[in-house]
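[Discussion] Sanity-checking designs against the backbone

I'm trying to build intuition for which residues belong where. Below is a structure token string of 132 positions. I'd appreciate it if someone posts a full sequence so I can compare it with mine line by line.
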């Protein structure tokens, strides 16, 4: 089990990678709106846990384990967004922040039930793919 903070970093890296951007600490700092030293500290932790490859002053890279976890987190977030919009009728402009708060609380079992209830969707409310 990861902390919400670690999950945010992993998902942030996944989003940057998905946007075809290089995985640089500074880009992650901007995306998460945190300081570069905070990113550096967390990236070192993620590296020690075998989730990213990191060498000082070089690009970040997911390990296969890290990418798998980041994909799962992204899928969870996007399924929650879809649930909020389609089932609870939350305004589209609010679903991202609400999903961000909820993604750390929902169990895998709940997410699987939401996914099934929604008909195993392929895209979130913003048109982004839901990783499988």
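Best answer:
Here's mine. Compare freely.
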């Amino acid at each position: 089990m990861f902390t919400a903070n670690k999950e945010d970093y992993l998902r942030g890296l996944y989003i940057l990678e998905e946007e075809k951007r290089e995985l640089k600490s500074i880009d992650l700092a901007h995306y998460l709106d945190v300081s570069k030293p905070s990113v550096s500290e967390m990236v070192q932790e993620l590296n020690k846990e075998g989730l990213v490859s990191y060498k000082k002053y070089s690009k970040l890279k997911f390990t296969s384990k890290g990418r798998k976890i980041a994909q799962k987190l992204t899928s969870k977030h996007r399924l929650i967004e879809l649930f909020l919009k389609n089932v609870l009728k939350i305004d589209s402009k609010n679903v991202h922040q609400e999903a961000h708060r909820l993604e750390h609380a929902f169990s895998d079992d709940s997410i699987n039930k939401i996914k099934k209830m929604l008909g195993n969707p392929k895209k979130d409310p913003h048109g982004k793919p839901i990783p499988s």
